[in-house]
Amino acid sequence: MSTVNKVLNTVTPKEVRIVDEFWTKYNDLVRQVVIPYQYDALHDRIADAEPSYAIQNFEIAAGRKEGQFNGFVFQDTDVAKWIEAVGYSLMTHPDAELERLTDQVIDLVAEAQGEDGYLNTYFTIKEPDKRWTNLADCHELYTAGHMIEAGVAYYQATGKKKLLDVVCRLADYIDTVFGTGEGQLRGYDGHQEIELALVKLYRLTGEQRYLQLSQFFIDERGQQPNFLEQEWEQRDRINFFVGKTNDINLQYSQAHVPVREQKEAVGHAVRAVYMYTAMADLAGLTGDTSLYQACQTLWNNMVHKQMYVTGGIGSTHHGEAFTIDYDLPNDSGYSETCAAVGIVFFAHRMLQIEAKGEYADVLERALYNTVIGGMAQDGKHYFYVNPLEVWPSACHHNPGKHHVKPVRQKWFGCSCCPPNIARLVSSLGQYIYSTNQDTIYTHLYIGGEAELTVGEQSVVIQQESGYPWNGATSFSFQLEQPQSFTLALRLPGWCKKASLTINGESIEYQSLVQDGYIYIQREWSVDDRVEWNMKMHVQVIHSHPRLRAASGKIALQHGPLVYCLEQADNGELISALSIDPAQSLTTRFDAELLGGAVVIEGTATRELTSDWDDHLYQDSPPTIQEQPFTAIPYFLWANRGEGDMAVWIRKN
Amino acid sequence: MSTVNKVLNTVTPKEVRIVDEFWTKYNDLVRQVVIPYQYDALHDRIADAEPSYAIQNFEIAAGRKEGQFNGFVFQDTDVAKWIEAVGYSLMTHPDAELERLTDQVIDLVAEAQGEDGYLNTYFTIKEPDKRWTNLADCHELYTAGHMIEAGVAYYQATGKKKLLDVVCRLADYIDTVFGTGEGQLRGYDGHQEIELALVKLYRLTGEQRYLQLSQFFIDERGQQPNFLEQEWEQRDRINFFVGKTNDINLQYSQAHVPVREQKEAVGHAVRAVYMYTAMADLAGLTGDTSLYQACQTLWNNMVHKQMYVTGGIGSTHHGEAFTIDYDLPNDSGYSETCAAVGIVFFAHRMLQIEAKGEYADVLERALYNTVIGGMAQDGKHYFYVNPLEVWPSACHHNPGKHHVKPVRQKWFGCSCCPPNIARLVSSLGQYIYSTNQDTIYTHLYIGGEAELTVGEQSVVIQQESGYPWNGATSFSFQLEQPQSFTLALRLPGWCKKASLTINGESIEYQSLVQDGYIYIQREWSVDDRVEWNMKMHVQVIHSHPRLRAASGKIALQHGPLVYCLEQADNGELISALSIDPAQSLTTRFDAELLGGAVVIEGTATRELTSDWDDHLYQDSPPTIQEQPFTAIPYFLWANRGEGDMAVWIRKN
After folding, report:
1. What contacts B327, CB < 8 A, 6 or more positions away?
2. What does the pLDDT read at residue B413?
3. Is residue A417's pLDDT more than 90?
4. What is the C-alpha separation between B76 and A44, in angstroms, rounded?
5. Whether residue A116 is found in the same domain as residue A241
6. Where in this chain does the record put each Non-reducing end beta-L-arabinofuranosidase-like GH127 middle domain (chains A, B) (predicted)?
7. Claim to verify: residue B78 and residue B153 sit in the same structural domain
8. If you count Cβ atoms within 10 Å of the first and of the last residue's Cβ in chain B, which end, N or C, has fewer?
9. CA angle at residue A632 from A631 to A636, to 5 degrees?
10. Does A307 touch chain B (CB under 8 A)?
11. Quick count: other Cβ atoms within 10 Å of Cβ A182?
């Protein structure tokens, strides 16, 4: 176990302007399509989609309208995440009209805030006397946390303090309600989120109370007597969603034991990773080694025992939760988009404590596969659940798979995922680099320009990259005068062969590698050009023999991308196909495929149904026939209508 | 499609005395253990088991006790099925003490009957004014049907009329309530059962009204306007179990269209097969070709598209139901024991219309694998759900598998399955033979003696059989004088090689085969001895390429028995094993294994976890190692503690 001995500086999205063949398209999509679309969705203006009611709730709470609260108890968060995404977008792409619309929304939010700082439309409209009586189920602090994140991002983007003031008042009020003092609640939320939000608010404002309040929530969690259990008893064991219950599942909220004693990722996956994120934040900020070690233990369990090859987590829709080690069903799991977003958060925080290749590898895996796979190429359709195998008819007719949708949906009643993708993509800049006293770390290969601070120096770094389609990447710098610092290039876990040149001169990088990063120390000048070429090849991925759902199967990966076979390319019934892993698999850039993508091609063997008679079982094998196959990146699946899809393919 | 052109005579269990190496043990178990155990269970005397309350409910309804109704709305049926099982048992094994106890139970049942003939403890105790207001959910006619079956069986066994009179009064009363007349309900039960029971009552009493009432229920089902839907609207859309509902699932009760228009097996699997059984009964009795053709259509869909290799049906625990063609998940399906019992009923009724090998093959498959697999070798533990693959930890910790129990349970709150096994095993004699004017059909190879009527003749047939461990079977006859008739021996679908001798003289049976039966016409005498030796071999079973859950896998079968691999023999993690189907597999009778059983042995390849590092995924395959494997009959699984089990094994 490592201790907290060096902590990197986090880069804000404002410092990084992405100009990248791959990501500029996503950024544009989020800015031009997703944010306006979600604005309409929040205002219930999308035909045929489930209504959101989120803005309407604020209008009622603000007294502008009469009416009832509608939607989930945490419906406010969709507005908060949208404002946060807008904030990130405005940081790099100012847009006066969008800012005007957002200011109007913020005015509305501010009007909905109580005199005392309280802000939550559900309780304000519907149960004003029930504040803080059901933290387990009602997401009050979770909802507050999202608004705090929005306030921070919008201030960073625009310098406008209105929403920041709102959330500071909210945080100040919460700080009076919770604590160990007389009359205070010694509790925490059922759904973690405020903990990481308060860290952001602390970083921005420097106000120690916010950091301490975050630490309080983390430290109290799971202590005895158990707050959530006591609260539940006081409510006569009434659960907000299902009524009277016989027991309370504390693991579901990671409140079964104190966080430092938790050894395995359990319960609701999004709650878990949001909590781990805050734990890593706090460990980095305070140097709390026991907290970092808890993060490492939980990381190792999650990543090495409970994570899909696509970087998704959550094996069951029951409680949107982890189950047990090695239980990763392909066709009935959960792998919620929000949980993959949360993995990006957690991995990023861990990277700030230690620059370890594995943290970045997992960040990249979640980002390039599940997170962006959660959104359609049109920016208007989303997955909440990200299966690794789909048989559409079974999704429609087997109730055990009702949560698995074979095509992305317009909007959800519980629509946490779409704005979560939007805010991640629009803030992607912050995940590319970190710095410390003497080093620039490159975690992701994404083109653009960043203004970074290395020690006392300012460095503008420019990156170009063929990622994720190829690994040809180059760096140059804008420097007033030659400067001495270390450039730490991430060596991705998937990369077995690469070449590094500086100004055309080949560098033996192998001896410079430490824990997944190549450290190049020199005096850099404005003419220097680093060419870092990671050779991408098709990797045949095997799974741990305990991963039963993938036994006897292989997955294909190329660079950071996990691939899948879809019906559109390979015919129906992907399960009848098998692949010889020893064959030579080829890649090709298909410019026609969904905006252009590298596909993997080879030969598969298909079990034929054509000459099988009308029985289910027989004592001779089916006839087999060879056919070419095409695998496409997983994140692109289900953009061509409904059909079979599988990541794990039988090997022969 | 065949028409109804010949109908065989059903044999009653009373006509057949089983003396058989394999089945005598089961019969003894049911008689000596299961029936007494279930008597105690119905009286709530089993420690640590869920209470039944079934007898107590009758005591309250009879006015002998004060108290509340407890248990399911159909709890009475457990008593009925127990009496029925006792009836069958007494037919061949008179037992004065058991008969005395049963007479007491029958006295109690009779006391609980209303003046008008109504008999149902739930409605009598709890909602006397709500009779016949919720046929969809409340199983009133289903409950009546089970008591009718009990009355028939107990009368046939003992000649005692008390319960028969009770159920005739009950049926007479029902006949006044339901019908097309003024003030009558033009309806039917949500859960079919009374239809087949009324046929039994008709066969015993000759009372045409019972046959007509059965036909009425079958004919009305699914007609427009839909009775269940109208009733639901009249109840303000209240469902008995879940309260107010937005819609009613008519497919669940096979009431979506008239039965003759149903093309696919849908909905609750037990309801379906009970209904199909009655349809076949009626088709055979009335010569209704359209009804028989509907049976054939539904049979073909169920058997050729929706049946597990173990003879189980029901792919989801949601509604204990069929899903869609080829959707047969191994580790999360349902395959309820009662549904397999129902398959035996349905197949048996189809066999009486046409002696087709497939009907008997399916009967045998369900009986020898799922039905007897539903009961532990101690007779005191039962499966409700019969999975084809079990990973115990996932059953305990993945809520999507909460219904799959890795070991048999003592009793269930909803305990339909244990008494269903008991009544089937104790009435097994009736499934072995059928006769018609000139032929004795042997459907099952089970030793013992039967007194049969062939045309006008009486024939005592004696069978000895090594089934299911080997196919050595012999027949002889007790005849006053030589008699001319046809002996039709079933040629099982699994049997590829056999020999037939009569009095030592070899017979070329191939030319005598018709639709799965070998027809041997001759004048038989008391000295004749037929030796019919079906050569059992290990069959490697492949599945239809559309059966995704078994793709790339094989199952092993020996004679009628499907095999499985268990952790007890093969180590943990069966999914890491694969088998070369081309190898020579051997069989051995292991006298020590659970009372003795033929095991299948061979060599498997295991993916090792020992040298795999702490990651889930890597780009090189796991190390493999050969190990011997042992497969045991599926019906014997989970008799040696909790562990991994799988029927479908990966092939390499």
Report:
1. A391, A393, A394, A397, A398, B306, B315, B548, B549
2. 59
3. no
4. 52
5. yes
6. 439-536
7. yes
8. N
9. 155
10. yes
11. 5
Residues A477 and A609 grouped into a single domain: no
Distance CA A55, CA A78 (A): 9
Residue B411's pLDDT band (boundaries 50, 70, 90)? low
Angle between helix A194-205 and A208-220 (nearest 10): 160
Closest C-alpha to A435, from A352, A539, A339: A352
DSSP A371: I
Residue B295 known to be catalytic: no
- Mutation target vs A (from B605, B617, B648, B652; most A CBs, 10 A cutoff): B617
Examine residue B303 and state whether it is found in any structural domain, yes or no.
Answer: no
CB within 8 Å: A324 and B609: no
User: What pLDDT, on a 0 to 100 scale, did the predictor assign at position B380?
Assistant: 83
Taking CB atoms and an 8 Å cutoff, what residues of chain A touch B546? 573, 576, 609
Are residue B581 and residue B527 in the same domain, yes or no? Answer: no
Closest partner residue to B391 (CB to CB) among A319, A548, A622 is: A548
Task: Write down which residue in B138, B162, B194 finishes a domain.
Answer: B194
Q: What is the per-residue pLDDT across A283-314, written as a single tens digit (0 to 9) for each?
A: 999 999 999 999 999 999 999 999 999 999 99
What CATH number does the domain containing A333 carry?
Answer: 1.50.10.10
Residues A419 and A462 in one domain: no
| pLDDT tens-digit series, residues B434-485 | 999 999 999 999 999 999 999 888 999 999 999 999 999 999 999 989 999 9
Q: Are A503 and A575 found together in one domain?
A: no
CA pair distance A413, B206, nearest whole angstrom: 60
pLDDT of residue A415: 67
A1 occurs within a structural domain? no
Q: How far, rounded to the nearest angstrom, does the alpha carbon of residue B102 sit from its chain's CA centroid? A: 24
Token look-up 């039965």 returns: B259
What's the pLDDT at B410? 77
Give the CATH number for residue A503.
2.60.40
What is the distance in angstroms between the Cα of A383 and the nearest Cα belonging to chain B? 21
**pLDDT tens per residue, range B531-540:** 999 999 999 9
Hey, what long-range contacts does A225-233 have (CB within 8 A, 24 or more apart)? A226/A250, A226/A255, A227/A135, A227/A185, A227/A186, A227/A187, A227/A188, A227/A255, A228/A135, A228/A136, A228/A187, A228/A190, A228/A253, A228/A255, A231/A133, A231/A134, A231/A135, A231/A136, A231/A187, A232/A136
Collapsed DSSP state (helix, strand, coil) of residue B349: helix
CB contact under 8 A, A616 and B551: no
Q: Where in the sequence is the domain holding B637, given as residue range(s)? A: 538-651
Residue type at A275 in one-letter notation? M
The answer to the question of residue A5 being in a domain is: no
Q: Give chain A's domain count.
A: 3
Residue A3 lies in a domain: no
Q: How far is B24 from chain A (nearest CA, A)?
A: 31
Q: What's the gap in Å between the CA of B305 and the closest CA on chain A?
A: 6
Residue B15 known to be catalytic: no
Task: Report whether B446 contacts B18 (CB < 8 A).
Answer: yes
Beta carbons of A332 and B327 less than 8 angstroms apart: no
Contact status, residue B383 vs residue B374, Cβ threshold 8 Å: yes
Res A570: pLDDT: 98
Which one of B194, B211, B241 terminates a domain? B194
Which residue of B304, B316, B650 is in closest CB contact with A398? B316
B495 shares its domain with B596: no
Q: Report residue A452 as tokens.
A: 């970074």
Scan for tokens 């620059």, then name that residue. A355
Q: Which is the catalytic residue, given B138, B295, B416, B417?
A: B416
Residue A411 pLDDT grade (very low, low, confident, very high; cuts 50, 70, 90):
low
Please name which of A281, A306, A285 lies closest in space to residue A295, comparing C-alpha atoms.
A281
What are A360's two structure tokens?
Answer: 């970045």
**End-to-end C-alpha distance for chain B, whole angstroms:** 40
Contact B578 A545 (CB under 8 A): no
